[in-house]
């Protein structure tokens, strides 16, 4: 009887959290217009969410591209198709790895920081303090971070893909001796702007919204103790990563049929 | 805490780098041709069988790309495929040119190859090719080959 009750309680908790999360999302959306007269807040958040993630994306993109070039070459050379190396690297980066790996890194780098920041704001009662001063914490604290995350993700993913293609180029053409012209012409022949690049941008924007939403909600909903904040931070990384991978399947199925 | 001027500069660099990366992807990596989306005139080729020809496939003459396949339709009166080709404005085709569907490489994509005729007049927009050659279908060829081989055996 006891475990049945426990099961019911955890189910109820789950749906309660899910509902709170969605209500939170709607309150962010309805707070969006309030950002217009507060551009400087967005600027600060673009800095801490976007600029500070810049370096990790740059390095990760370069190495992922280089590894793709190396691995792809070893497989393709057996079929005498090493000229297609560029297509393989570019398509896998633009369609999949760019948005997904960027979102995973983004969840780890920016998402956890957002959760910890907001959770601590809640634990130190800064959010309640704002409410006391008739400042809506959602509008003042949450919305700028949300918008910054939504816009940073596509930019970061584009940087990741571009740097990755360069990494593949360095390894393929510079190190392994794939023909320079064939590398680029095959890429340009096979990568379509709307089907591949625009869809990749849409994907990364969706990931940006989801990761930022989860991170902000976990922080806002955290138990206001040091343990609660640390749990919320862990949950952000786990949930955001799983959500990104799951959503990636759905979006891929919808876009690239 | 950084000064707000420094923050603005860094954010500016970040946004510029992101947009530049997107631009590089669009221009260098994809086949987007906004700046030379060459205008062209349509000509029509009718084929018995177009095989695996797709829209946007290249149209070549002597191996040089001079246009692309715009639309593929089907004429239900004579049961033929109607392929609309867009030929770049720079190129003129004699009226009696012919069109064939070939495959690039062994397993590559199919494209339309044009061969110039000797007529002094040029093709006008929406003109039709007089002579066309369909795509070769591998199964059909093998079938014909086997049929010939069998015929040869019984003939002896």
Protein architecture, described:
The complex is a heterodimer of chains A (257) and B (156). With 257 residues, chain A is an all-alpha fold. Chain A is 86% helix and 0% strand. In chain A, helix 3 (85-123) packs parallel to helix 7 and helix 7 (193-220) runs antiparallel to helix 8. The mean pLDDT of chain A is 90. Chain B has a 7-stranded mixed sheet, with no helix packed on it. In chain B, 28% of the residues lie in helices and 31% in strands. The longest helix of chain B is centred in the N-terminal third of the chain and has 26 residues, at 4-29. Chain B has helices at residues 4-29, 138-155, and strands at 40-47, 58-61, 64-75, 80-88, 98-103, 110-115, 131-133. With 156 residues, chain B is an alpha/beta fold. The interface between A and B is medium-sized, with 31 and 23 residues.
Number of DSSP E strands of chain B: 7
What is the helix/strand order of chain A?
A: HHHHHHHH
Strand and helix order of chain B: HEEEEEEEH
Q: Which range does the strand content of chain B fall in?
A: 25-35%
Q: Tell me the β content of chain A.
A: under 5%
Shape of chain A: elongated
- Mean pLDDT rating of chain A: 90
Main beta sheet of chain A, described? none
Q: How would a textbook summarize the main sheet of chain B?
A: 7 strands, mixed
Sheet with most strands: strand arrangement of chain B: 1-4-3-2-6-5-7
Distance between the termini of chain A: 48 Å
